[in-house]
Amino acid sequence: MDKAFKLAHKWHTGHFRKKTTIPYISHLMAVSALVLEHGGTEKQAEAALLHDILEDTPCTYEMVQRKVGKKVADMVQACTHVEDEGEKSVRKLEGSKADLPRPPGCRGPQPRLTSCCIGRQNPQC
Asked: Where do the DSSP E strands lie in 1-125?
């Protein structure tokens, strides 16, 4: 968990929640906490801390894998789609191959834990 937090903090330093002065890391921490509160594993919580790193920063899959391992890096990548020409864009987690269980109380077609927790923590998404 420590390595994932340090990686998230390093790459998201200077980022803020939309239209606020709240550091963006607060969102990542909140999503990670929700994953744990809904029965997620430590690896899933690490992926939650890093769920925006490939989309919002120059950090690469390989960098994530070196720091936190293949399993977490694969979950992070399942939350992000990186275009061939270097453009980064989001891919919805629902229907991805991420190894995330369905939490109690979530509605919708087979929601995944991180996706649901992102929505709960950030309802405007």
From this structure: 80-82, 88-90
